[in-house]
Structure formats: structure tokens, C-alpha cells
Design brief:
Helix content is 38%, strand content 33%. With 179 residues, the protein is of the alpha+beta class. Strand 6 and strand 7 form a beta hairpin.
Length: 179
């Protein structure tokens, strides 16, 4: 009832007259090996904490997209950095910081279009790539919503850390045509 990966090996046995007499073969189930390879590939391409594409994968995906589009298309690249994140980690610990990163990702995903490529470049840096941008004004409204949504205050006892985000925007092809 399910598909599995198999490796087959066959050989033809000929009779004394040189004609094909029969085919003998073996089928080896390699499904576990294939599934393990798929999982390993996924782990290599994905940020373990957030589940987002990692830096290398983001660079490859954006580079591939830009390599297949024409100069008349417009796209936007948004770099997002969490301000004061080091203080969150230093004040509340790395597990708390991981939770802040995960919360930030959920907010970014919620506020971006479904076709937006969101990735983690590392640490507290994220990217959102907006393909087929309709207008810069629409993007600027999205950026304003992101900036508002990503302002937070974290408290524990007498400790308080306020975070916000810094963002940089570049437009294709005006500001460049590569990642």
C-alpha cells in the first residue's frame, strides 16, 4: 500500500544456442537508506531551531530565482535584525532567547505573503525575500507592520529587556541582481 525505494540487479542467462533463456534478478529494499538521506539533506538545508531555510539554502534559492527571472521583474530583499537580542540571551538565558527567536519567526511568517521566502541567516538575523513585487508602497506597509509587531518587552523579576528590529531593504534590479 505504499511506495518504497528499491535497487534492482538483473542478468540475462543465455542458452547454448545463444538465445535469451531467462532473466534472474534481485530486488533490494533501500527505502530506509533513501529516507535517511532525505532527512540528512533536510537537516543540512534547514535551521534546527526555527525550521526555516538556513543561510546557504536561502542564498541558493534566491540566486536560482534571480537567475531565472527577467530584468523587468521586481523583487525585494528584506534583512531583519533583532535589536538588543544579546541582552535577552545574557539576561534570561539561551533557552529563553531561543523562544524569542521562535516567536519572532511566527510573527514574520504571519505578516508576510505566502510566497515570501523567509530564512535565518544566523544568530538574530533573518531575511524575507518578496518575489514579484507589485509596488514598493505595498512592501513599505508590510515593513511598518513588521516593525510594530516585532517590538517587545521581556521581563523576569526585576529584569526588563526591550527588543525591536532593524531592517534593511534592497530592490531587484535597482540595487543589484545577485544575492
Amino acid at each position: 500500500g505504499r511506495l518504497v525505494w528499491c535497487r534492482t540487479r538483473m542478468t540475462v542467462i543465455h542458452g547454448s544456442d545463444g538465445r535469451q533463456k531467462q532473466v534472474v534478478g534481485i530486488i533490494i529494499d533501500i527505502d530506509e537508506d533513501k529516507q535517511a538521506a532525505v532527512q540528512m539533506q533536510k537537516r543540512a538545508e534547514t535551521d534546527a531551531l526555527t525550521g526555516l531555510p538556513n543561510r546557504g539554502t536561502v542564498q541558493q534559492l534566491i540566486g536560482s530565482h534571480l537567475g531565472h527571472c527577467g530584468p523587468d521583474q521586481r523583487h525585494a530583499f528584506l534583512l531583519i535584525d533583532i535589536d538588543n537580542f544579546k541582552w535577552v540571551n545574557d539576561t534570561f538565558g539561551h533557552l529563553y532567547g531561543d523562544a524569542v527567536l521562535s516567536e519572532t519567526v511566527k510573527k514574520i511568517q504571519k505578516l508576510c505573503r505566502s510566497d515570501t521566502l523567509i530564512g535565518r541567516l544566523g544568530g538574530d538575523e533573518f531575511v524575507a525575500f518578496f518575489p514579484r513585487l507589485q509596488s514598493e508602497e505595498v512592501l513599505m506597509h508590510a515593513v511598518e507592520r513588521l516593525q510594530s509587531a516585532l517590538v517587545n518587552t521581556y521581563t523576569s523579576g526585576s529584569h526588563m529587556v526591550k527588543t525591536s528590529v532593524s531592517m534593511g531593504i534592497s530592490f531587484y534590479p535597482r540595487h543589484g541582481n545577485t544575492f
